[in-house]
Amino acid sequence: MATLLSPRRFIPSPRHLTPSRSKIRVRDLSFTFRVTTRSLTQLGSSSMSRSTTESEPDPQNDEKKAENSDEVLVQYVVLRRDLIDTWPMGSVVTQGCHASVSSIWSHKEDPHTLQYCSPENIDSMHKVTLEVKGEPQILNLSEKLKAGGY
């Protein structure tokens, strides 16, 4: 039911960092979920702690579901709280934007991505930004999503 962009390392340019932070590396994770409208209203903070085996993806029905007008596509962008607290806000926002665009580009041929970016949906591209405490948590989330087939 979801597509995961493998974590990519983004190294900010030195002009955005003080010398004491010049060796910081960032991992931004962006992934796209297909969520039905009903499920979207029920989505809460507990959804991140649900077992990844609760809902298995069904690749055979992906194209049919992509054309379903009742379905809302949501892209989740996960940011690290430790970076939000220590980096300039512009740098954090830029990293989230890079992750979002990279995820879309990496899956540009997927029927769900085509629907998400279609001219009739371009003004209603749903995104949700979530945070994790730090690098260990974002890596843990990445591993859980991979293990669940996302």
From TrEMBL:
Biased composition (Low complexity): 41-54
Annotated EC: 3.1.1.29
GO molecular function: peptidyl-tRNA hydrolase activity
InterPro entries tied to this protein: Pep_tRNA_hydro_II_dom_sf (IPR023476), PTH2 (IPR002833), PTRHD1 (IPR042237)
Disordered: annotated segments: 41-69
Catalysed conversion reaction: an N-acyl-L-alpha-aminoacyl-tRNA + H2O = an N-acyl-L-amino acid + a tRNA + H(+)
Gene3D superfamilies reported in the protein's UniProt record: Bit1
Keywords: Hydrolase
Pfam families tied to this protein: PTH2
Name recorded for this polypeptide: peptidyl-tRNA hydrolase
